[in-house]
């Protein structure tokens, strides 16, 4: 994101004075899908694409916000109990309210913002926006008294309370806590996390966006969550003296012991979740050793599980994964909730051009459009630029 571009628009749309500039990234998740609501681990990292805002207090109780990419302007009072109806402005309004709840005396400000996180590609542009403004308001009005975890929770609460999205914490967590050259293993139950090195010399990380989103995603998500809950209920009944809250607490022998008490479909879903728990831990070990071949192998295994056991892939995504395999790409899988979106690919540099060109050509031949290509680099989380 170009700071001079954002600053020029800020100067143009307000009173010619400059303010402070802040940035927050989008994210990728290397491995660990559908594990958050099962009490498991996720493995995200912040990326070199995100949201940047310039912001300056204006001495009033009014927020004047300009969305550079949309060429749209909205104003609202920080004490307004309802807030603006414009969808993008609800994120800023929500962060203002949530930061006030956390003791930050937010007053009016002028702001202009822009982003280069591709919309709909599973890199969490909304979380980047929430984290950017939470960090900025904490710096400007809170003297940095609010802890990073409170910024994460303010972003999540904004989604829940003002935007109608009942999300988890991974996206905001990655945006706030990200570090250059590091991925993070987050325990979705305890919120404990650990940084792991991610410096794949000789490799590139690239997303191929299928430009597909199938409509059955929301209902199918609920069905899969229900399957996991069904297995947990059977395990609780089978093991009354053990503390079993989610599939995180199960092992393979326990799962095998309840096969006759739940549907085959439920067992397939649980099989993926237990396998994914093991794969995340294996990737942790591999990254510590710099063993990117094992990382890639586990990525393919995750995709196989998501496609065959959890059944959240789709024809287009599976096609892109097969192209990756044929080209000797080190690792590839669907990223995100499923039924469309992106593949995340760990590619040796010498294979990159031929793989990307072939994927675009073959995908276009089959589906009449090219996948979008996004190279990503692991970068720092929310920060003040100047």
Automatic annotation (TrEMBL):
Residues 286-350 form the GHMP kinase C-terminal domain. Residues 91-179 form the GHMP kinase N-terminal domain. Coiled coil: none annotated. GO terms for molecular function: ATP binding; galactokinase activity; metal ion binding. One of its GO terms (cellular component) is cytosol. Transmembrane segments: none annotated. Keywords: ATP-binding, Carbohydrate metabolism, Cytoplasm, Galactose metabolism, Kinase, Magnesium, Metal-binding, Nucleotide-binding, Transferase. Its EC number is 2.7.1.6. One of its GO terms (biological process) is galactose metabolic process. It is an enzyme of class 2 (transferase). The keyword Nucleotide-binding applies. PROSITE patterns: GALACTOKINASE (PS00106), GHMP_KINASES_ATP (PS00627). Residues 9-57 form the Galactokinase N-terminal domain. Belongs to the GHMP kinase family. GalK subfamily. This is Galactokinase.
């Amino acid at each position: 994101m170009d700071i001079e571009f954002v600053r020029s628009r800020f100067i143009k749309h307000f009173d010619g004075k400059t303010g402070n500039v802040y940035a927050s990234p989008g994210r990728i998740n290397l491995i660990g899908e559908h594990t958050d609501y099962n009490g498991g681990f996720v493995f995200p990292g912040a990326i070199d694409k995100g949201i940047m805002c310039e912001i300056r207090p204006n001495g009033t109780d009014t927020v004047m916000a300009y969305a550079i990419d949309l060429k749209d302007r909205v104003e609202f009072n920080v004490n307004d109990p309802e807030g603006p109806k414009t969808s993008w402005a609800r994120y800023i309004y929500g962060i203002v309210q949530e930061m006030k709840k956390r003791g930050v005396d937010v007053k009016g400000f002028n702001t202009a913002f822009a982003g280069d996180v591709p919309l709909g590609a599973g890199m969490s542009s909304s979380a980047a926006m929430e984290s950017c403004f939470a960090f900025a308001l904490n710096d400007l009005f809170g003297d940095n008294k609010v802890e990073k975890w409170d910024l994460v929770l303010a972003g999540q609460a904004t989604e829940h309370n003002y935007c109608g999205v009942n999300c988890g914490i991974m996206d905001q967590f990655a945006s706030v806590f990200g570090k250059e050259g590091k991925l993070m293993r987050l325990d979705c139950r305890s919120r404990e996390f650990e940084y792991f090195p991610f410096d794949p010399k000789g490799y590139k990380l690239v997303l191929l966006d299928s430009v597909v989103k199938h409509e059955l995603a929301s209902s199918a998500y609920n069905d899969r969550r229900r399957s996991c809950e069904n297995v947990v209920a059977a395990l609780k009944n089978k093991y009354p003296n053990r503390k079993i809250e989610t599939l995180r607490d199960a092992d393979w022998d326990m799962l095998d012991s309840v096969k006759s008490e739940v549907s085959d479909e439920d067992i397939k879903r649980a099989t993926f979740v237990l396998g994914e728990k093991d794969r995340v831990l294996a990737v942790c070990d591999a990254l510590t050793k710099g063993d990117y071949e094992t990382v890639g192998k586990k990525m393919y295994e995750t995709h196989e599980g998501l496609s065959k056991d959890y059944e959240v892939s789709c024809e287009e995504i599976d096609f892109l994964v097969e192209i990756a395999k044929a080209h000797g790409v080190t690792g590839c899988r669907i990223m995100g909730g499923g039924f469309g979106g992106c593949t995340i690919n760990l590619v040796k540099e010498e294979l990159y051009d031929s793989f990307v060109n072939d994927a675009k050509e073959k995908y276009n031949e089959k589906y009449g459009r090219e996948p979008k290509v996004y190279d990503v680099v692991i970068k720092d989380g929310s920060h003040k630029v100047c």
